[in-house]
Amino acid sequence: MPTIPPVDGAQKRPWSVISLRLSRQILLPLSLVVSVLGGWEIAVRSLHISALLIVPPSAVWQTLVEDWEILLEQSMPTLIDTVVGFALATIVGGMLGSVMVMSRRLQQALYPHIVLFQLIPKVALAPLFIIWLGVGPSSR
Predict the structure, then answer these.
(1) Which of 3, 30, 109, 113 places its Cα 20 to 30 Å from the Cα of 67?
(2) Residue 12 in contact with residue 20, Cβ under 8 Å?
(3) For 16-54, what is each residue's pLDDT tens digit?
(4) Phi first, then psi: what are they for 10, rounded to 5°?
(5) pTM given for the model
(6) CA 77 to CA 73: how far, in whole Å?
(7) Of 91, 29, 117, which is closest to residue 37 (Cα–Cα)?
(8) Residue 102: CA count within 13 A, CB half-sphere
(9) For residue 10, what are the β-bridge partners?
(10) Is the separation of the CB atoms in 90 and 96 below 8 Å?
(11) CA 106, 112, 117, 119 torsion: positive or negative?
């Protein structure tokens, strides 16, 4: 087992190194999240910012605690739609990639359109898809 080099003339214990790494990996990110949320809460309350503009984290937490059953119930259709959409995209993408690898002419025909589609921000495409396909379960 490799030895840990001494610090200030004393041999560091392995558990202290592990605890130091854990504190860096867990406590630093956690303290950043707590600081940001605390600053957000203080700023919203002290500056009297309307909840319509910026909702304080305490209000979000309160809603999560009070309405968790409704949120859980509504999260299941969203989860199912997400998993099904990801599976379909994976299958279609894999098939499209396979076809492009097998046929040089199809690759030359499709590849420029794929690259062009990747250059367009998805935020700009979303309203077009909503207009074309509509809103609701049937459009998905």
Answers:
(1) 30
(2) no
(3) 767 777 778 888 889 999 999 999 999 999 999 998 899
(4) -115, 145
(5) 0.54
(6) 8
(7) 29
(8) 6
(9) 7
(10) no
(11) positive
Written as six digits, the tokens of 59 are 């209000």
Q: Which two tokens stand for residue 20?
A: 């130091």
* Alpha-helix runs per DSSP H in 2-136: 14-22, 28-46, 57-66, 68-102, 104-119, 122-133
How many angstroms from the chain centroid is the CA of residue 73? Answer: 21
The position carrying tokens 């940001």 is 36
Per-residue pLDDT tens digits for 92-138 = 999 999 999 999 999 999 999 989 988 989 888 888 888 888 887 77
Structure tokens at 62: 């309160």
Radius of gyration of the chain (CA): 26
